[in-house]
Amino acid sequence: MVPLTSSLLQNDYRKLSMQCKDFVVGVLDLCRDTEEVEAILNGDVDQCPPSPYNRPCLSRIKLAIKYEVKKFVAHPNCQQQLLTIWYENLPGLRQQSIGVKCWTVLGVTVGLPFLAIAYWIMPCSKLANLY
After folding, report:
1. Rounded Cα gap, residues 52 and 5, in angstroms
2. Is the full-model pTM beyond 0.70?
3. Membrane spanning segments where (predicted)?
4. Which residue of 20, 44, 48, 89 has the fewest C-beta atoms within 10 A of its own C-beta?
């Protein structure tokens, strides 16, 4: 009898887990603007350590990744927020074609070692400030 009860409990927990996952995705569906999405994704900002670059902590996304809640992480509102953070220093790159993006990545990859050496040799130069 014990295995049967255990099996029933496992099924109940699986159903509850799926309901919770569907609930959080439904909450993201109800967001009307970016502020609401940020509030959901950042969680409790009082418990997040302050970021040196004023970036959001995204604690709920980190939890969703940790517990493999793929529907939540793949939600368009969540992806939009991640893309905004990813492209924050290159706003025009987001609208470019895939070819321009590849050339940009290649240029940065090739140029980065030279910039690092220049920074190491001349840490107070204009190039170092740009870097």
Report:
1. 51
2. no
3. 102-122
4. 89
